[in-house]
Amino acid sequence: MTKLNRRSFLGASIGGALGASGLIAGEACARSTPVPAKWDRTVDVLVVGSGFSGLSAAIEARTNGAEVLCIEKMAVIGGNSVLSAGGLASPGNDLQVAAGIKDSPELLLADMLKSGGHLNNVECAKVVAYGALDAYRWAKDFLGVKFDRLGYQGGHSVARSACYMNGNGANMIGPMTKKCREIGVPIETRTRLANLVVDDKGAVIGAEVQKGYAFPKENSGKKVMIRARKAVIICSGGFSQNVKLRMLHDPRLGPQLDSTNQPGATGDAMQAAQRIGAADVQMDWIQLGPWTSPDEKGFGVCPKFVESSVGYGLMVDPKTGRRFVNETGNRKVRSDAILLTGHPAVLLVSEANIKHVPPSTIEAGLKNGAIRKFADLGSLAAAYGIDAGALGKSVARWNEAIAARKDPDYAAKIFDDTVPNEGTFYACRLWPRVHYCMGGLAINTKAEVISTDLAVIPGLYAAGEATGGVHGMVRLGTVSIADCLVFGRVAGRNAARRAA
Ligand SMILES: Cc1cc2nc3c(=O)[nH]c(=O)nc-3n(C[C@H](O)[C@H](O)[C@H](O)COP(=O)(O)OP(=O)(O)OC[C@H]3O[C@@H](n4cnc5c(N)ncnc54)[C@H](O)[C@@H]3O)c2cc1C
């Protein structure tokens, strides 16, 4: 049995922690599929997953000269990415410049570390913060993604999210799949990574896949062995839909909590990497979205309504009629506070303060009933069973904060164009859902996957939500997409340049 390659050892500080006892390859690959006598198919780079990270990796690997195959276990392309509803945090993007907002990678990094509780892998977070503007330009100029709006998300110091057209993830996945077609990257759906194949030196050299896989039938499809001359890149997203796995790491997140994710977000490709000795990090940091409503299914329209209304309107506990948290705080702060009350919160905002909510969002919310419109505060209080006197006092106090441009109670952000809340109101109820996994496979700044003995696993890369460490304990809104594009491209480029 051969030792894993020490030349690719991570660094002196980690080396000290490792000591002399390295994991031997035989142990590491004990649960990989044996090297077959004959491969069914050979490519240079095999990309697992067709979301933003997978397609970014595939396009970048192809444009760097590699023959690439992208596999997707579900019947449709796009994973959570196609469901995504916002944008791409990118300091210095042209929408931000046009709005006269000053920003920098340093400020984005500082926001990521603050929100991440300084548990972030700082070097990887830097790669994202300093690479986000280039990723935005690549999406806009090379892929032809259309961005139509600048967005603000709780926890960021400034508005910096370039929102793709109509906040519809398909408007970014579409140009990516078109580019794949143009440059010759096949994307094969209903093809699932089952196991990785590792050689006697501990390097990943291919994969066992199930062709014709019918999610969620575990053993469906035909076994096909694919040789990857250069590398396999795991871009398989998170595990928010795997109740057992998320409960293993955070026992509070049982089946009573819905998820915003697509059903295939189960983490099985990440587990295939773990089976050959890949390390994972921060698996118990699983993010709840504070802006989902029990009055609609999945992600719904309320998140966009809420994120465009915070800093303008207020959120109250219907039992007390009072505010209870900083509405512009990060997702964890808000979700934890709502869960602690034990029942859905109510967010309310006056008509004069919804100028940044896309009209289509209001329209859709009014239609499905999750957003409601009220002629005055009294009728809103009655509809949600809130004490009208207490609610009136809370609104008056928030309006005083708006006039003073300072929130003495929770230090919420108040924007320059926020005006007092009066007259006609819009409102919705909010109850958190499992949304994002901060934890996942351990990678370094080159997107190489790190083993449990802290060495690089040759031939294995990962990017996007399948990885952990970039975001620490709390990911900021719209930084996942920046992460997917930046690290997807890093992985694709490095995989393509690797010797076959
Ligand atoms: C509703 C919603 C809205 C969001 N909005 C935003 C936003 O505005 N901005 C932002 O930054 N983030 C947002 N996020 C988070 C962000 O969209 C995701 O974190 C990101 O798109 C993940 O991209 P990915 O490429 O890592 O994974 P995904 O897009 O989830 O793609 C992974 C793919 O891999 C496939 N796969 C999994 N296992 C296997 C296997 N064994 N074999 C083959 N294929 C496999 C999956 O089926 C999936 O299609 C949102 C998330 C959701 C759910």
Task: Offer a concise description of the structure.
The protein has 15 helices and 21 strands. With 500 residues, the protein is α+β, with helices and mostly antiparallel strands.
Question: What can you see in these coordinates?
Answer:
The protein is an alpha+beta fold. The chain is built from 15 helices and 21 strands. The protein has helices spanning 12-18, 25-28, 52-63, 94-98, 105-115, 122-143, 170-183, 243-249, 268-275, 302-307, 331-341, 359-368, 377-384, 388-404, 479-497; strands spanning 41-48, 68-71, 87-89, 147-151, 161-164, 187-188, 191-198, 204-211, 222-234, 280-281, 286-289, 314-317, 322-323, 345-350, 371-374, 425-430, 433-437, 440-442, 448-450, 456-462, 467-468. The strands form five sheets. Strands 1, 2, 6, 7, 8, 9, 19 and 20 form an eight-stranded mixed sheet that branches. Helix 3 packs parallel to helix 7 (170-183), helix 5 (105-115) crosses helix 6 and helix 6 packs across helix 15. The longest helix is centred in the N-terminal third of the chain and has 22 residues, at 122-143. Bound molecules: flavin-adenine dinucleotide (FAD). Flavin-adenine dinucleotide (FAD) binds next to helix 3, strand 7, helix 9 and helix 15.
